[in-house]
Design a protein that fits this description.
Layout: H1 3-12, H2 25-28, H3 40-64, E1 68-75, H4 81-88, E2 97-101, H5 116-119, E3 128-132, H6 141-144, H7 146-150, H8 163-180, E4 183-191, H9 194-206, H10 216-221, H11 225-239, E5 246-250, H12 254-272, H13 281-296
Parallel strand pairs: 1-3, 1-4, 2-3, 4-5
This protein binds adenosine-5'-triphosphate (ATP) and magnesium ion.
The site of magnesium ion has 3 residues, from loops.
Length: 310
């Protein structure tokens, strides 16, 4: 491990939800936390470093084509999901990245089991896929608004008392299957304070260029703040696993949230440690034959092979 890699691994430790621990968001995580990074300027430098690292690893991930990375982003409204995606993924090759936003399920989606639509959007080998909202909505918004569960037309046996316990278990097992088969899952919860959400909503009202982002529905949803905090606390407690741990990203400062999210994703890639494929001696020999043929075609005065060292 290089010193840069060690620094990143140490930095993200504070955000990790220890599998098996019982979390209460308000007690255990501070949305305004900024650890030892004191200035935005220092933050920007770190973010740039993280972005370089991500780009470097993504190239190798793509070349190796064995692992994929699924980034799961969950948050309350105005926590900065879109901005985080935009900033963190700036350096990567768009060909290897996909973003999918999950909205209220369509009637076609409701014809299927609750995990169906998420499975359809998973990243393939070599790819980074981002879920902007995810299967966790099924144990968050659906839990906070029981009428959404009604629309899922579940058989009576699947609607009973143990439904959330069962869903946590099913989600954990689904993620275990994916991770065993090469899809690494990175789960980020952008943790915003109620007061910071209030000021961000006001900003969207006050600044004309931001009006388009304002939604009265978001303000109505704010009335369920404490229900969401409880639901998130349960999700974090029950679905942070060794194979797919949750990271709680302090989101009151946008610049800090971006560094933290970038670091967690970079760390996941470091853990995969993808390598450029190497070739065996037969393939090497074949390459050399082609090289000789190409060198023989050099026009008069041109170097036979301008890339050859020396
Ligand atoms: P933005 O507002 O920045 O565009 P967003 O993610 O808030 O992003 P919206 O279209 O405003 O997008 O909201 C999507 C809505 O869909 C959210 O309120 C979310 O809770 C809801 N939703 C997502 N998944 C489900 C689901 N499985 N069941 C019910 N509602 C869901
Ligand atoms: Mg919204």
């Amino acid at each position: 491990m290089t010193s840069r890699e060690r620094r990143i691994a140490d930095f993200i430790e504070a955000f990790r939800v220890e599998p098996g621990s019982k979390i209460r968001l308000s007690r255990d995580f501070d949305p305004a936390f900024r650890g030892t990074i004191h200035s935005k300027k220092e933050g920007r430098r770190l973010l740039a470093e993280g972005i370089d690292l991500l780009a470097e690893y993504q190239t190798r991930l793509y070349a190796q084509h064995t692992h994929g990375v699924l980034v799961v982003l969950q948050a309350l409204d105005a926590a900065g999901k879109d901005g985080t995606i935009r900033h963190v993924m700036t350096g990567v090759n768009p060909q290897g990245v996909s973003v999918h936003s999950f909205k209220v399920p369509s009637s076609k989606e409701l014809e299927h089991d609750y995990l169906w639509r998420y499975g359809l959007q998973l990243p393939g080998r070599g790819e980074i896929g981002i879920f902007n909202r995810s299967h966790y909505e099924e144990v968050l918004v659906v839990r906070v608004h029981p009428e959404l569960l009604e629309r899922q037309r579940l058989p009576r046996s699947a609607r009973g008392k143990g439904i959330w316990r069962h869903r946590f278990h099913e989600i954990n097992e689904w993620e275990r299957t994916l991770s065993r088969n090469g899809i690494k899952i990175v789960k980020l919860f952008l943790n915003l304070s109620k007061e910071e959400q209030r000021t961000r909503f006001l900003r969207r009202i006050d600044l004309p260029d931001h009006n388009w982002k304002f939604s009265a529905a978001d303000v109505r949803e704010r009335e369920y703040w404490s229900d969401y905090q409880r639901a998130f606390s349960k999700v974090l407690s029950r679905t942070s696993t060794e194979w797919a741990p949750w990271y709680v990203i302090p989101a009151d400062r946008k610049w800090y949230a971006r560094i933290a999210a970038g670091a967690v994703i970079a760390n996941a890639l470091m853990e995969i440690d993808p390598r450029f494929p190497t070739i065996d001696s037969d393939a090497r020999k074949a390459l050399l034959e082609v090289k000789n043929a190409l060198e023989a075609q050099a026009p008069k005065g041109a170097a036979a092979d301008p890339f050859e060292a020396g």
